[in-house]
Amino acid sequence: MVLSLDTPLDMHLHLRDGEMLEIVAPLSAETFSGALVMPNLVPPVTTAQMVRDYRERIAKAQGAHRFVPYMTLFFRSDYTPEFLEEVRDEILAIKLYPAGITTNSEGGVSGFDLEELAPVLGVMSDLGIPLCVHGETNGFVMDREAEFIPIYERLAQAFPDLKIVMEHITTKEAVAALDRYENLYATITLHHLYITLDDVAGGLLQPHLFCKPIAKRPEDRTALLNVALGAHPKVMFGSDSAPHPREAKEAPGCAAGVFTAPLALQGLAQLFDRHGALANLQAFVSDNARRIYGITPPDKEVVLEKSPWLVPEIYEGTVVPMFAGQSLEWRVVSAK
Amino acid sequence: MVLSLDTPLDMHLHLRDGEMLEIVAPLSAETFSGALVMPNLVPPVTTAQMVRDYRERIAKAQGAHRFVPYMTLFFRSDYTPEFLEEVRDEILAIKLYPAGITTNSEGGVSGFDLEELAPVLGVMSDLGIPLCVHGETNGFVMDREAEFIPIYERLAQAFPDLKIVMEHITTKEAVAALDRYENLYATITLHHLYITLDDVAGGLLQPHLFCKPIAKRPEDRTALLNVALGAHPKVMFGSDSAPHPREAKEAPGCAAGVFTAPLALQGLAQLFDRHGALANLQAFVSDNARRIYGITPPDKEVVLEKSPWLVPEIYEGTVVPMFAGQSLEWRVVSAK
Question: Most buried among B35, B71, B79, B231, using CB within 10 Å?
């Protein structure tokens, strides 16, 4: 059995910088046509020049693959209208992190004072710059996303023309919110479609499946599967592939993040196939994102076939992927 | 400030075997007068001879400290009445594990067919041998203990004269069950009084706080604190101190267990002191257990004072304790 995907997109990707960028950029660029690149570097990407420089470093690292890094800016409430106008052609979206909620988010927003955020959000709405949000409070780990939904709702109501993307959603509450506001969208990762907290901590502890937001309950995964497999028009694939060096994952104080970029399409094909939903994968992995963001990425046809593929144990001796050393039922046979 | 504890008891302890036993036995024997020793060795402790041999190995390992290892047998539904009569003077209790639910529990009970368990439980009830239970189903990790409560209730109803100890309880549901059946009792660990899932996986992942049952929600911890600090007469301290070699904790597939034995009394004193409940610690850490189990352990007076004590980073280069490298507010000044 063969599956052809037209111009796959990863609408939430961490490419990091330096050596890690060199390792992971070609892996995404090989099978994806483009990706929305997160700005949580150290320091975070907050100026037009930083955006341009980072894009250039990515272009250098990605090799010969045809691949567009769609750039983002790290949300700051003190951006001026002039700056936002200047930077708007350099970026596809602005990413908002609550302070301290995930890797390198220390400079993010503390509290959600709508009055403080309003000036920047108003200009973004006028300029048509989508807002991507890591939607977690600092509450109890299993409740953080559900507790954040009222904030999404306030934002969606206050700025009805602003496209707001609930990033890497993990709960049935976030899925339910999707249909309550026209301007709310969502990305869903590969790993949150596969795992629950049981896979992280139900048997032995699995640091390579530890991520933020943490994988939730079985009924939450079911809700995510429903909209992903059902090609819900407001839901996009975003891997949140988040590489960390092996040492940072396999030690006390394990960093949050699952590395899935090089196996994402294979893993998605397996999942959609198992659920008899292969016909809907194109919408989830490309069409919805193109329509929502209004982008025209370069054509890339990725052909997968149903034939076992062994996921590497580790990439470049540094990054351990999801499904390391396990066999997936689909492999990529060509991407061009 | 000084606190004197009379004959402290740890009613749920893993002493392991071999080298690990040599390391941990003296640490418990130093500050406790006795402990209920779990039988989940490899292979599990299932014969009178195995009980005697294990007790002897413990006695050898514990050094000169005055300390009674109260022995347990690993529950099997095919024990005969004759065997149970023979073994009854060798043991204080029988421990029941659902199969595969925690470290070395593979040989435990599959399913809870009351008819299958009834013959052994009936004899235990007649002989006055308490039943200790690791009460978790194989459901979703956050629900396993609450789902097990109906099984506790069926057991408590079917065998009203059998003392049933819900081991290392972690939920408000288990706390609530305590008062519904006269013959239900519980142990509570140090770590479940301190942590929630937030401490394990809410920030960076902390393998040394990963245990079974997993730490639950804030409202669960509150329920545990209420009965422990309030000296509820059916609740006993049981550390569930569960040493693993550092390599087994700090790697993917991290083993479940928190090592607390050598800092348990100090940690309890700090906790009870912070909550203004020092006067209730004696009941929690000794009196309740003596009454419930009807035991008369050797006198031991343990004196603690409120003065900072630095918890070692690691014991014998092998086992990392809870609070490793951190300071507790109470120290043991003498135990004799």
Answer: B35
Instruction: Give, for A322, the enclosing helix (H) or strand (E).
Output: none
B240 catalytically annotated: yes
Report ipTM (2 d.p.). Answer: 0.93
Tokens of A34: 């483009």
Catalytic site residue from A240, A273, A287, A299: A240
How close does chain B come to A23, measured CA to CA in Å?
22
Strand B301-310 and strand B327-335: pairing? antiparallel
- The catalytically annotated residue of B240, B273, B287, B299 is B240
Q: Which of A241, A251, A255, A171 is nearest to A210 (CA)?
A: A255
Report the gap between the CA of B320 and the closest CA in chain A (Å): 11
Residue A197 sits at the chain B interface (C-beta within 8 Å): yes
Residue B272 dihedral angles phi and psi, to the nearest 5°: -65, -35
Of all residues in chain A, the one with the smallest CA distance to B201 is: A141
Q: Checking DSSP bridges between strand A2-6 and strand A9-13, what pairing results, if any?
A: unpaired
Q: Which of B141, B198, B204 sits opposite A202 (nearest CB)?
A: B141
State the best of B204, B209, B249 to mutate against chain A, taking most chain A CBs within 10 Å: B204
Q: Specify the pTM.
A: 0.95
A217 CA: distance to closest CA in chain B (Å): 7
Instruction: Report yes or no: B196 and B224 within 8 Å, Cβ to Cβ.
Output: no
List the structure tokens of B329.
């507010």
Give the model's pLDDT for residue A11.
98
pLDDT digits (tens, 9 = 90+) for B150-177: 999 999 999 999 999 999 999 999 999 9
Q: What is the pLDDT of residue B41?
A: 96
Chain A residues inside the 8 Å CB shell of B140: 196-198, 202, 217-218
Q: Give, in order, the Cα–Cα distances in Å from B274 to each of A28, A157, A179, B31, B267.
A: 52, 45, 47, 21, 11
Tracing tokens 């937030």 back to the chain, one arrives at B198
pLDDT band of residue B99 (cuts 50, 70, 90) is: confident
